[in-house]
Amino acid sequence: MTELKPPYLAFDPATRRLRLDPHEPAFFQDPYQAYAFLHGASNAFFWEEFGFWCFGGFDDVNRLLRDRRFGRQNPAGIPDSRDIGQDRTHLSAFDGVEANSMLELEPPVHTRLRTLVNRAFVSRQVERLRPRVEALANELIDRFEPGPGGVDLLPAFAAPLPITIIAEMLGVPVDMGPQLLDWSHRMVAMYMHGRTRETEETANRAARDFSHFLRGYVAERRKRPGEDLLSLMIAAQEDGQKLSEDELVSSAILLLNAGHEATVHQTGNAVRSILAQGGDPRRFFTSPEATAATVEECLRFDAPLHMFTRYAYQKVEAGPGIVVQAGETIGLLLGMANHDPAAFAEPFAFRPGRADQKNVSFGAGIHFCIGAPLARLELQVSLKTLFDRLPQLHLAEQPRLRDTYHFHGLETLAVRF
To answer: What's the Rg (C-alpha) of the chain?
Structure first.
């Protein structure tokens, strides 16, 4: 059965061209209505507002994430969405960070960087953090001070937990958390649709200041190594090669940004999803297995990242009748893929016990999220602790999502208990 077409989009089935403003409130507040229609109409379409082909079928997204004919590395830097030409001198600090970021690189450089960083980020290292994450979650809940509108869980719980953990892991001061968040938000804004010159200049300043701050800590750790991630990355070697200082700084910025940005959104989205089910939320966390399954369903049901772009390295037929030229971009719609009726029974139902549990929220292939084990652990521990401590938790008001289609997260999450 084909879903009704939402009134805010136009779709031509003959050309598979979609007109849909990603800043349309009815869309970014609930993209799943549009996804349901598009799954029935076409899983692949040319999204006019972005100017490239997008794919939303689960199998297509999974396949294209692994297809080595596509990648993240773009010699021209992040495409200029404002059509002002190729002058990027005002982005020199930002581009300097991106040039050494493993997220934006391909083999063989990506392989070397990821191997060196991953040694400090394997599951057994992350598992040792479980008691610390639980203690921190309890500390944050103890500090809740309900105001007239309740407690906003995003600044009181969802944001401080992952930024504190990643700062402690890297060995940078935890009290720098708010500043690290600010730098991160300003840099991540570069990936939003329709950015401005002001956005670019702000991101460049943030990249410059962030890099300067980290270079100071790298110098300290070289003199006095510890057990932190920076020290481990400085010491790590692969075939006699180490990370250069620029690679160290870019890797630390990537880990700080990726180590909290998506987890904050996912925590808020997960709390909203669980509360929407009604009843006692503790029923979703009765055992480690139940907790893990609940987190996986939260990741599938309302993912924090909805679009991931890749560049074609050669002329490729990306899908039936869709030829992409070398250098062109494609969009992989992770949130849409996670709701593909061809891949999931009742894709729009929240069912932690589903037999077809899978998702592409962390990506796939060589760019699979390096922080996935940490994110999963933080979500499992923080959500279980929150609902065990506050089983009467409920929304104080209906939360609204931010006007940032790529990064799907709430503006606020006011709750009472």
So the answer is: 21
Q: How far is CA 231 from CA 169, 221, 243, in A?
A: 10, 6, 11
Q: How confident is the model at residue 89 (pLDDT cuts 50, 70, 90)?
A: confident
Tokens, residue 225: 């190594």
Q: How far is CA 140 from the centre of its chain?
A: 23
Domain count, the chain: 1
72 inside domain: yes
**Quick check: 105 pLDDT over 80?**
no
Which pairs count as long-range contacts for 393-401, CB under 8 Å and 24+ apart, including other chains? 393/271, 393/275, 393/281, 393/417, 394/275, 395/272, 395/275, 396/149, 396/150, 397/149, 397/150, 399/268, 399/272, 400/29, 401/28, 401/29
pTM above 0.85?
A: yes
Domain residue limits at 65: 10-416
pLDDT in tens, 17-30: 999 999 999 999 99
Complete DSSP assignment for 173-219: -GGGHHHHHHHHHHHHGGGSTT--HHHHHHHHHHHHHHHHHHHHHHH
The CATH number of whichever domain residue 250 belongs to comes to 1.10.630.10
In a domain, 3, yes or no: no
